[in-house]
Amino acid sequence: MLAKRIIPCLDIKDGQTVKGINFVGLRNVGDPVELGRKYADEGADELVYLDISATFEGRKTFVELVSRIAREIDIPFTVGGGISTADDAGALLLAGADKVTVNSAAVRNPALIDEIAGRYGSQFIVVAIDARMNDSGRWVVTTHGGRTPTEKELFSWAREAQERGAGEILFTSMNHDGTKNGYPCDTFAELADLLSIPVIASGGAGTIDHIADVLTQGRADAALAASIFHYGEIPIPVLKKALDERGIPVRI
Asked: Which parts of the chain register pLDDT below 50?
């Protein structure tokens, strides 16, 4: 069985790692390269860096940062935020990123997935999906940090993304994100049944049990988290040791 992956996520604004809720109340939590190196040393399997700077100057700063990360960190890393063309993706891959992730731009223009996968390969593209369950039990795909509902539905959009060339799906339940109350494991299990590509679980991690549950009951291939790592609530070595003791395959 393939090892399950643990992936810290770092939001980047103006070259620094920040943390807030839905990008509000941001505070600096450290240098992205130093923090990434720390997580790599602790046993993180991959890293995700998301550029939340909207300006062109922010984009330039981010590309320079990606080059520095590639020089100094020896585990795979994915970058995203503001990627709206295959050329945007190409600039980040050329700077040294292992993968790119697209979200809102792919919802607006699904052909973007085909373009990036066609030019660089499916292994380079992760499609992130933020969805919220509505009152009728339908998982509605959203944009803008979960605030803007779309016409798309989680399962059909995930299947379409796979068919268009996505190499992985990163799903965040906006009902659970930030609650630290755990993941919707049944939904992740349904995605695992539907798709043949890996699924990364995001949003809701508050305890080791939550992560263990989504990797077993939810059959997710990886768990992504931010706050629990940034604030030292669950150190990566402690998490991995606990998962290993439960018989969950992880790279120690």
From this structure: none
